[in-house]
Design brief:
Layout: H1 5-8, H2 20-23, H3 54-67, E1 71-75, H4 78-86, E2 94-98, H5 103-115, E3 119-123, E4 138-144, H6 156-165, E5 169-173, H7 178-181, E6 191-195, E7 209-213, H8 216-229, H9 235-245, H10 248-267, E8 272-276, H11 286-292, E9 299-304, H12 307-316, E10 321-322, E11 332-334, H13 346-352, E12 358-362, H14 368-379
Parallel strand pairs: 2-3, 2-4, 4-5, 5-6, 10-11
Antiparallel strand pairs: 1-7, 6-7, 8-9, 9-12, 11-12
Helix pairs in contact: 3-9, 4-5, 12-14
């Protein structure tokens, strides 16, 4: 019988019954740069930690197992993961991307990829057919679902069908839901991206990124590029992320429970113009989420009545931290205009709905009543 996701967060199936490393329950940190060889032509299986490290390899197997991929690649940050993936594209290639993405991804696409001669065409993938943007040079479709920060939901299976009908790759950034709630590869995606800094690690204490694939041709290319670019995650950081994943299930369930309560509370506040949370039945993507995910996550975006209230909220929060990032045990509030999307052109931000009155809430695992009391104090 196949193991359930919450069990897979703690146990790598291939290691069941294994008592290596003196029976250590916590996988060891192999804090070494290089490895000795028994003799010429013989190897322990590891040569140099830029190529691979046992701690990183173990973490990669766990993430691949959770996502249902054949391989995973652990790198130094979420942006390092996006950058590593772009190495598979050549000058002259084109990518179709959702217009509402994390600002760092847009910055990389509009600058680094542009300088490499790769063109990115943006569209609202969650609501429009992108077939008119496909050319003979198009190689991939890149989406987030839900998107950051406007929480737009794209039908992964439908998007994968369209992409594959035109021999395109589908890449899905799954950071907001984590593999505990959503598995894009099982819905037809070819590549999944994670900022492991966020929910996978879950404690705001390290940076990490992941690429997961179920295609052998992409696996082969990425194994070459990760050793060549030197972007692999360090042993101690790999151990921190693996430790975080052990509690992924309980953290995601608790944070989601809190998010439901907070989203419902925010809907009843007169100074809040709108609440965007895919777990609310009035969200346009609610039914799609029910089909393709096992949960709605703990990210909430909301818009207040004016910028003065934004300044009041950000100046008064104490239990909730005014900080960039998301997915940790602590609840964080972020101002996309000056933080996550500061480098996105204003015209693009406004077109996507990111006004100067929009705030993003990453709900943590504190007591929901305490979080609501804090929001009541800072919004009123």
């Amino acid at each position: 019988m196949a193991r359930k996701n919450d069990t897979l967060c703690l146990h790598l199936e291939e290691d069941e019954g294994d008592c290596r490393f003196f029976g250590a329950v916590s996988f060891p940190i192999f804090q070494t740069a290089t490895y000795s060889h028994p003799a010429l032509g013989q190897s322990t299986g590891f040569d140099y930690s830029r190529l691979q490290n046992p701690t990183r390899e173990h973490l990669e197997k766990i993430v691949a197992q959770l996502e249902g991929g054949i391989d995973a690649f652990a790198v130094s940050s979420g942006m390092a993961a996006v950058a590593l993936l772009t190495e598979i594209f050549q000058p002259g290639d084109e990518i179709i991307a959702d217009s509402d993405l994390y600002g760092g991804s847009i910055r990389l696409f509009d600058n680094v990829l542009k300088n490499k001669g790769v063109k990115v065409c943006y569209t609202e993938c969650y609501k429009s057919d992108f077939k008119h943007l496909i050319t003979p040079k198009t190689k991939a479709v890149y989406i987030e679902t839900p998107t950051n920060p406007m929480m737009n939901v794209t039908d992964i299976a439908k998007t994968a069908e369209t992409a594959h009908n035109h021999n395109l790759l589908l890449v899905v950034d799954n950071t907001f839901l984590s593999p505990y709630f959503q598995n894009p590869l099982k819905l037809g995606a070819d590549v999944v991206i994670h900022s492991g800094t966020k929910f996978l690690s879950g404690h705001n204490d390290t940076l990490a990124g992941f690429i997961v694939t179920n295609r052998a041709d992409i696996q082969e290319k990425l194994r070459f590029f990760i050793k060549t670019t030197g972007s692999g995650l360090a042993p101690f950081d790999s151990w921190l992320v693996e430790r975080g994943i052990k509690t992924l299930a309980v953290r995601m369930d608790k944070a989601q429970s809190n998010a439901f309560k907070i989203a419902q509370w925010l809907e009843n506040q007169p100074k809040v113009r709108r609440v965007i949370y895919p777990g609310l039945p009035n969200h346009p993507g609610y039914e799609i989420m029910k089909r393709q995910a096992r949960g709605f996550g703990s990210m909430i975006t909301f818009e207040v009545e004016n910028k003065a209230l934004v300044e009041q909220i950000l100046g008064k929060v104490r239990l909730i931290k005014f900080a960039e990032s998301l997915g940790g045990v602590e609840t964080l509030i972020t101002y996309p205009t000056t933080q996550t999307h500061a480098d996105v052109p204003e015209e693009t931000r406004l077109k996507n709905g990111i006004t100067d009155c929009v705030l993003r809430l990453s709900v943590g695992i504190e007591n929901a009543e305490d979080l609501i009391e804090e929001l009541q104090n800072v919004i009123s």
